Description:
The chain has helices at residues 9-22, 26-37, 55-65, 70-85, 103-112, 126-137, 144-153, 162-177, 185-194, 199-208, 212-223, 226-233, 237-245, 252-264, 266-273, 275-283, 287-296, 298-303, 312-317, 326-332, 347-353, 360-368; strands spanning 95-96, 101-102. The chain starts with 8 loop residues before the first helix and ends in a 6-residue tail after the last helix. It has three domains: 1-177, no CATH class; 183-273; 304-374, Serine Threonine Protein Phosphatase 5, Tetratricopeptide repeat (Alpha Horseshoe), CATH 1.25.40.20. By secondary structure, the chain is mainly alpha-helical. Helix content is 60%, strand content 1%. It is elongated and about 90 Å long. Helix 21 runs antiparallel to helix 22 (360-368). A two-stranded antiparallel sheet has the order 1-2.
Amino acid sequence: MNAPDDVPLDEAFRRAFLRCVKEDDAGALLELERLAGQGATTSAFEDHELGPANFAMAVENVLDRAVHGPAAERFLRAANVVMGAGPAFRTNRAYVGNGGDPAVCFVLRFLSGELPWGKVDKPVPTVALRLLTSMVEHGLELGLNFWRDFVLTLRPLPEPQAAWREVQLQVVELAARQGLLAFDAALQASLFNQQSLYLNPLQRLLSVQRGDVVTSVLERFERDPAFHVALAEAGRLDELAESVLNPFLSSNENRRQLWQFATRFSLVREWLSRPAVVFALVRKKEKSTLRWLLARVPEALKSARDEQGNGLLHELVMVRGKTGGIAELLIEGGLDPHQVNAQGESALDLERRRGRRASSLLAVMNDHASPSTR
Length: 374
């Protein structure tokens, strides 16, 4: 239906949004969408309006009473219509009440658990995450400090709240992917000063950024080893090393960048050389990276052991499928197929016990074994 003749199109659009949000009126949502189709804009909305027709106040009202369910879904539709209808809500001009917080900041505070009804012991706010994603996709922007503050409000959560934490980390990833969360000196200082507390957000940040950002982080690690030491003492250094390095194994171009970092930064070489990482490289059949390491830190691969005393050749025996010449690479690089684990088994013994006598892996090992062990 068209707007009444005596009501300007944009004002009718505003009133429809008011009804949609304040009264949860499904018919008003359809009207809102029709009016947007006729070219309605948000020109009739006021930036600091205190009523629920204001977009940010609508955020507050809906998150307060309907985190899930049909009402929240209707609000998401209405919010997307409004954000797409005019430039006023593609900036940070929409405010919550008279406190001056931009609308997107309010949603960030909700998702961080800072607001009373956004607590981690309540249902996971997936609708709020979808709203935030829409706001970002529609061009809502904030200064770096809002996104930094969100990261710094996060705290380790107990296992029952793991789903909440995952939503929070998705916010970090969203901001990083959109270039809204620069890893600047102030954020670095805050993260590093808190040491292992912020490992998960740091992992998510680094997993989606490359180039100068990663270089900046690595330079900080090299310059100030306190964060690195704290993670090691907390037993979480392997976790960080694997999560930071894994994205670099997705393509040959990324691998070359990883090797450049490892050439430049001794800390990256140390991470790559850690037993948990080199075992993961074997499981992933990362032949090129293993070759790079053998040429530079061969002793790290020769001495690598897991908790059962297995070496990399033991691990390779347990890898399913073809191993692409990794056995030849490791043995020719000096790894000993006769080295025994805590149970007194060599990699050859383990291979025979697993019944893979006809495999190419066993044949390679036999070629390098002494006659007395064949």
